[in-house]
């Protein structure tokens, strides 16, 4: 049959839409995204994974900005953080939304049919009956399992986060761009900083816009200003520019400088409460010169709390200095950017002033090694791409001195020790601060502390990690500090029980470049040999200090045990000695002038009962106490006394006519000579 006259049944005919003719692809359209739009779509990069993590990261970014602001003007930081819980009704009132009751219950995700509810209630009744029977039989009753959570996100929880500090403040005209333009900031450059990417509070603003639609409020005042800058703004995601609602100067009613930032976001306090409090506590450890006041305000009074982390010292680390690039740490793109931005004219000046550890003589040697087409007076702007590649290749192959690390600002042993003592109250603590070392041309310093015992410290290893004086709370298992403490330290060789003792391990790493792994600033990888070696050495130095303290403590404990044993046998020893003396006195009562006067006097006193068993017991007890006191004084002298005695100590001189009876040098020696 011909193709045009098909007599196939409808079932045999091919279905429409299944034509084998290929579809014509749509023409691709070139689009461009702004940085704000990119981070809004990939907010997990900045630590905004879920509502709970968003609340934690918002607090973290605001606190760190406040510390940077205060430290930049050498002001002892005072940071106040308030998280206020906002109910659904209050939130709807804030945005002008009228709440209404449900009309179609089946439309909602938490709807439960009558049959499903009957089935659930019957199951709960059976479980209660089983638990009642088990309780009657004396069996252990299991806790009732909570009902399964409904699918979906459920009702959102909203919080107003406020952070106030006493820092530098912000110039009035710069506030909109500092908060409303992603990838803009004041922390760019090669130096040790807490922040790096110009995100921080901007991501909190983006999350606020995504979850609540509400703008952010900023109040700021600088030293010497007679006004307070107030700005209310949000961000234009697609154009990456600030959308200003209010920007004005208000009357300054009190002497205050700093910034106060207020943002309303969706969050989850319940799941991230411990993380936020843990972060604040660790921040108090690494910055004991700062005062933190943390408040959680809830409509339910039993949930509200106020925690004050008091300042322990007024000694602040120096402000980190901006430094120049080390030749071994630069790439080809960075060399081109430095050439574009430099104010130097020729290649000799460029090498000397744009890089560290290149002297004039060294620069001349490098230029001579580059080839005959390079001359010291050659204009730096005239270099070709091939010549720049040659410079880069030489930088990778040549030998340079390591940077000295004077641009870094570690917390310092003093502050680290005070922070540990203030927050953990350990029984003993040791700290160590290493010298500057280098990886990939970047200097870094490792500080460590190890504590034993303490308040709210679990048995085993409790690891606290810091990078550029920022606590790291996530991805602990893969971090170089955790792996070093667990696998590379033989704790038993330092008289420390890894499983039973309460061990606190604190490691702080500062550098111009922290080699974080992953998208967020969560952990430092274990693949950099220089850092892993420095971390291990720092922890070992702390353990060596602790070992000497532990050994001395064990010796003191053994001495106390010896004292208890001696005291326990004093009555028996005194009784035996008195019986010997009494027998000798009776045997030689008739023999006069056979012994020296001292011996005769001693035996005479025994005969006349001037010396009794109780006398000997008392003298032996005094002797044991005197020996224990002298050994304790020697121990304190060798180990050092951490604080002044609470009471005055008076040491009497020894009297030559002491009543102390030296039995070993008199009677017993006399008996040996007699035999």
Automatic annotation (TrEMBL):
Task: Give the start-end ranges of region Disordered.
Answer: 1-35
Q: Which reaction equation describes what this protein catalyses?
A: ATP-dependent breakage, passage and rejoining of double-stranded DNA
- Function statement: Component of the DNA topoisomerase VI involved in chromatin organization and progression of endoreduplication cycles. Relaxes both positive and negative superturns and exhibits a strong decatenase activity. The B subunit binds ATP.
Q: Which domain of life is it from?
A: Eukaryota
Documented EC number(s): 5.6.2.2
Q: Where in the cell is it found?
A: Nucleus
**GO molecular function annotations of the record:** ATP binding; DNA binding; DNA topoisomerase type II (double strand cut, ATP-hydrolyzing) activity; identical protein binding
- InterPro entries given in the database record: HATPase_C_sf, Ribosomal_Su5_D2-typ_SF, Ribosomal_uS13-like_H2TH, Ribsml_uS5_D2-typ_fold_subgr, TopoVI_B, TopoVI_B_transducer
Q: Where is the signal peptide?
A: none
Q: Does the keyword Lyase apply?
A: no
What's a BP term from Gene Ontology annotated to this protein?
Answer: DNA topological change
Residues involved in ATP binding: 65, 165, 186-187, 195-202, 521
Which keywords has UniProt assigned to this entry? ATP-binding, DNA-binding, Isomerase, Nucleotide-binding, Nucleus, Topoisomerase
This protein is called what?
Answer: DNA topoisomerase 6 subunit B
The encoding gene is LOC115734138
According to its record, what are the GO cellular component terms? Answer: DNA topoisomerase type II (double strand cut, ATP-hydrolyzing) complex; nucleus
What is said about its interaction partners and assembly?
Homodimer. Heterotetramer of two TOP6A and two TOP6B subunits.
Q: Does the keyword Isomerase apply?
A: yes
Name the lineage: Eukaryota, Viridiplantae, Streptophyta, Embryophyta, Tracheophyta
* Species: Rhodamnia argentea
């Amino acid at each position: 049959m011909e193709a045009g006259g098909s007599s196939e049944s409808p079932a045999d005919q091919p279905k429409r839409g299944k034509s084998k003719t290929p579809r014509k692809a749509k023409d691709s359209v070139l689009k461009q995204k702004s940085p704000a739009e990119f981070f809004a779509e990939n907010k997990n990069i900045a630590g905004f994974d879920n509502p709970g993590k968003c609340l934690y990261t918002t607090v973290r970014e605001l606190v760190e900005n406040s510390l940077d602001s205060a430290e930049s003007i050498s002001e002892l930081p005072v940071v106040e953080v308030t998280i206020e819980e906002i109910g659904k009704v209050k939130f709807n009132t804030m945005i002008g939304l009228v709440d209404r009751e449900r009309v179609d219950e089946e439309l909602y995700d938490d709807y439960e049919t009558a049959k499903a509810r009957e089935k659930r209630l019957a199951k709960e009744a059976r479980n209660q009956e089983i638990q009642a029977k088990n309780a009657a039989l004396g069996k252990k009753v299991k806790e009732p399992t909570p009902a399964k959570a409904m699918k979906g996100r459920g009702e959102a929880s909203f919080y107003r986060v406020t952070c106030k500090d006493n820092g530098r403040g912000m110039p009035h005209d710069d506030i909109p761009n500092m908060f409303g333009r992603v990838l803009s900031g004041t922390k760019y450059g090669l130096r040790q900083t807490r922040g790096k990417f110009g995100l921080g509070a901007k991501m909190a603003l983006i999350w606020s816009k995504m979850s609540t639609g509400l703008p952010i409020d900023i109040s700021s005042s600088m030293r010497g200003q007679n006004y307070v800058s107030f700005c209310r703004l949000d961000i234009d995601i697609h154009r990456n520019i600030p959308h200003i609602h209010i920007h004005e100067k208000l009357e300054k009613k009190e002497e205050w400088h700093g910034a106060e930032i207020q943002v309303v976001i969706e969050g989850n306090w319940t799941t991230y409460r411990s993380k936020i409090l843990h972060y604040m506590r660790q921040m108090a450890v690494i910055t004991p010169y700062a005062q933190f006041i943390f408040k959680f305000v809830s409509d339910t009074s039993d949930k509200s709390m106020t925690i004050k982390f008091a300042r322990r010292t007024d000694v602040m680390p120096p402000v980190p200095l901006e430094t120049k690039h080390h030749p071994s740490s630069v790439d080809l793109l960075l060399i081109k950017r430095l050439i574009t931005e430099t104010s130097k004219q020729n290649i000799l000046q460029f090498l000397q002033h744009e890089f560290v550890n290149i002297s004039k003589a060294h620069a001349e040697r490098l230029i001579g090694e580059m080839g005959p087409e390079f001359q010291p007076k050659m204009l730096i702007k005239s270099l070709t791409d091939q010549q720049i590649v040659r410079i880069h290749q030489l930088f990778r192959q040549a030998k340079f001195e390591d940077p000295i690390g004077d641009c870094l600002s570690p917390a310092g042993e003093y502050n680290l020790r005070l922070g540990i003592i203030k927050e953990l109250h350990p029984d003993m603590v040791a700290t160590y601060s290493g010298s500057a070392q280098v990886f990939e041309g970047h200097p870094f310093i490792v500080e460590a502390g190890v504590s034993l015992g303490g308040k709210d410290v679990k048995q085993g290893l409790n690891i606290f990690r810091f990078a550029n004086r920022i606590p790291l709370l996530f991805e602990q298992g893969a971090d170089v500090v955790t792996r070093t403490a667990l696998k590379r330290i033989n704790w038993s060789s330092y008289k420390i029980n890894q499983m039973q003792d309460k061990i606190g391990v604190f490691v702080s790493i500062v550098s111009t470049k922290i080699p974080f792994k992953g998208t967020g600033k969560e952990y430092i990888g274990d693949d950099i040999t220089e850092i892993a070696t420095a971390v291990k050495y720092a922890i070992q130095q702390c353990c060596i200090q602790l070992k000497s303290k532990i050994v001395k403590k064990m010796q003191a404990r053994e001495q106390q045990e010896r004292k208890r044993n001696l005291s326990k046998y004093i009555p028996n020893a005194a009784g035996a000695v008195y019986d010997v003396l009494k027998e000798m006195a009776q045997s030689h009562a008739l023999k006069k002038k056979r012994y020296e006067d001292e011996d005769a006097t001693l035996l005479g006193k025994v005969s006349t009962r001037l010396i009794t068993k109780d006398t000997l017991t008392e003298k032996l007890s005094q002797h044991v106490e005197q020996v224990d006191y002298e050994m304790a004084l020697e121990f304190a002298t060798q180990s050092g006394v951490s604080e002044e005695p609470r009471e005055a100590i008076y040491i009497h001189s020894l009297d030559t006519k002491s009543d102390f009876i030296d039995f070993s040098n008199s009677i017993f020696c006399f008996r040996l000579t007699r035999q």
